[in-house]
Give the backbone structure.
Amino acid sequence: MLPFISSIALPRRPALAICLLAGVLVAGSARADEADDQFAVAAGHYARQQWKLAVEEFQVFLRKYPTHPKASQGTFFLAEAQLQVGDFRGAEAGFREYLKREPGGQFARPALFRSGEAAYLTGKADLAKADLEQFQSTYPQDNLNAYVLPYLGDIALGRGDAAAAARYYRDGLSRFPQGRLQDDCRLGLARALEKQNQNREAERLYLAVAAKAGNPLADDAQFHLGALQYAEGRYAEAVETFAAFETRLSQSRFRPNARLGRGWALLKLKRLDEAGRVFEGIISDPKVGVDARYWLGLVQKAQEHWKAAAETLLAAAAAAPDHELLPAIRFHAGDALLRAGDPAAASEQFDRVIASGTAGQEWSTAGNEWIDDALHGKVQAAFQAGDHQALDREAAEFDKRFPDSPLKGDVHRVQARSLVKRNQYGPAVKLLEPLLSAGSPGDQDLEDRYLVALAYQGLERPQDALAALLPVLDSAQGRLKSDAQLTQGSLLLAVARYGEAARSLETFLEGNPTGDAEVKGRGELAICYARSGQLDRAKKVYAELIEKHARHSLVLPTTEQLAEAAYEAGDSQWATELFRRMKTESGSKEHELKGLAGLAWSQLKEGRLAEAAATFEKLLEHDPPATVAAEAALARGRIFEQLDRSDPALAMYDLVIDKYPKSTEYPRALLAAARLRDKLQQDRQSAALYERLATEYPQLAEADAVLYEWAWVLNDLGQTAESTALFERLRREHPQSRYRADAVYRLARQAFAAKDYARASELAAEVLAGNPGDALREHALYLRGQIAAAREDWDQVHQAFSALAKEFPKSPSRLVAEYWVAEAAYRRRDYETAGKLLDALAQQIQGRPDPWLAMIPLRRAQVLAQLNKWDEAYVIAAKIEAEYPGFEQQYEVDYLIGRCLASRADFQGARDSYLRVIRSPAGAKTETAAMAQWMIGETYFHQKNHEAALREYLKVEILYAYPTWQAAALLQAAKCRDLLGEPGEADKLYARLMKEHPGTDFAKKAARRMAIPPGERVDSDQSD
């Protein structure tokens, strides 16, 4: 958790700003006396929510007329007004006074609620809890529980009862999902869940609240989201989250703490310069300035700017003598001074930290945690000053006061360095053994050093042991030197320095050792040869060993290591021989099991799958340890899968899953089973396994693959929202994943399908910016073009599809891309370019019946129509239905044919074409149908059949919800009324047009026509 998060308390929500009983505040009788007038004045201010004036006037009323019949009401309303102006203590007293006067009174219900609310707002948790729980119990169905439940949640959370708080918040969201405090519940629930380590759900809730534009809790949620990300070590995300407080949340009360948190996250990311600038920007803040100086000092220390760090930290200490961080500030100031080469000044700061633990200052308890650091610093300062007596004194004090401190080892290390300086080597070795490899061996006896080396070897510290052995190897004679050579060989073997180890062991064996030492030496030499790839030499040494010492106890472990070395070196035949020897000649279950396991793995490596499966089965029958069993079962499952035997493979995976959940193979078995069940279309079982993997092993190396594959399984199950969430999670959590680009593309496709074009465009651009590979790039370019088309951004359509056609000339989508380039030109009204492109496309599609290709002749005809080449347009359009009988947009063709016929004054033919548009299944109720209906009216209008035209125009207004055409139809219908000599009816239509479509050009024309005397409206420009 962020170090400053505890300073951010739960929000004290403002009082519910409603007038609970406004109906009571109606003025009294006409003959009211002075008391009634005073009450009425107070009530009037209350009703208008002029709260301050209401408080003043109700106080006057109650002071003057304490026994008035309305005094109890006045008490309640005064408390309510006080609550609204923030006088929570006065409000609480008032509500309790009312309940005391009239416990069963008219306002007992809201007064009980308000008393609990006021107590909540004044921080009286016990009283608030009692009142609110009483209210909930007495009025369980009351809508005010929408406030009671989050208040109780806040109280529980403030007391550390996160589970109870979560129940209250969930209840609030469940019962009042649209309540005014729904986001308060979400935010509170997020905090409660976070305290219960349910961080993923908490994060989703924080994001939901923070994302709501204008939400007053957005900054609270944003801040706690950043704090959560920081607590989880997701520092880069925290930096971005806290950055919102520099832009859209710059006025938030959380801003100082958010900036502090951002600096902390940058510090964790080792972005020191940025962190320093953040801290520098808030060192003058009255709320977090001291903290900022402290962290700025730590940044400067991290940058090794010791003098600057010391100055910053000393300034922080001077600015806040009672600050809770003062011990830490002084310690780090001392540490910086020490590193700056001023041990005396450093020691002074350390002394002040140590004194704080006993001097009785307010922060003495907190100071205790720094006293061992300060004593450690005193030891270092004494060492730096060369005051060895002071060093011993401080070190002894440290051991006495802090025997279990994690700094004890380093204190001993410093003391050991001091002892070495004073030539006291024995105490140095006893204090801190690692100094053995760094310090001078002095006069230590070679035997002691050899024994220490053996101790290091037993502790598995071979490098230290090798360093300790060097003087023995250089100076010792006889048996000690021989033993040192053998030990050196063993140590070098342990650290995989096989060539050096072999030379040491060869030298050792030249001395003709006997007994256990000989067996150990020959066995380890064989292992060295095997590990360094000299298998022939290894086999020779091993054969000599077996010939002379076949029954020796050290032979079997040697055989085991050689078998493993042979296996790793690829000599499966020798590995098989050695593992079989272990299995048959070991005499112990442990080595028999190892032999079986090795034999099975060797057979597997040789590609003898059936034999390997059988050997693994024998191994499992011998009830091996869990780790061996899990490994064998998983391997056997994979063998069966290679042999295309799905059922036994699943049985093996399930065995690992069910019986060995703590094994390292468990997650691999989950993944293998999930993939196999997916392959077998057992999607629900597969999804459940992926979910377990993602939940139980979020750090799995294949975590990105798990999310990606799980998302597809959920997609196959039709769980689109869940699949989308996983793709988004993969995008967010695994920026380097090889699956990320495809996941982002899928998100882009889904956003496009949901018509969220802005997000779809952003995601498509993200795919293209990441070098996704040719196949995905082609799809992303196509999608970018689709998005642009949906947004009618024809410049972007041209750019995207031109790029697709250029980069992927052999793509199956090239023809579509070229069409869209032409379409973009058409939509930009560049009809000349569009015509040329479409003519070229027409040559490419000859003889192809694909229905969508009908768009090409349609657009060609429409281009000609735009150029008023109606006859040429008709020739092309008239052929489309026969050539493309399945064309869904035939109604567009029919509309165009109608226009062509109308241009020839073939109005009946035009009307027939328009009727086909209106009656077509695909075109009915489209805007094209509205236009066709309007054009039918126009054909009659041009024929001066105003009665028929009127009827057709009015159909547009009634049948089609397209405002432009409704307005145009009303205008034309009104003109028809004028031409029919019905100016009164025309005026009604003009008036309706202006009312229903104000501000349009049609409304302006209607206004102008209404201003003309009826007898003068008929003019030669009948169609206007």
User: Anything to note?
Assistant: The chain has a mean pLDDT of 85. The first helix runs from residue 34 to 47.
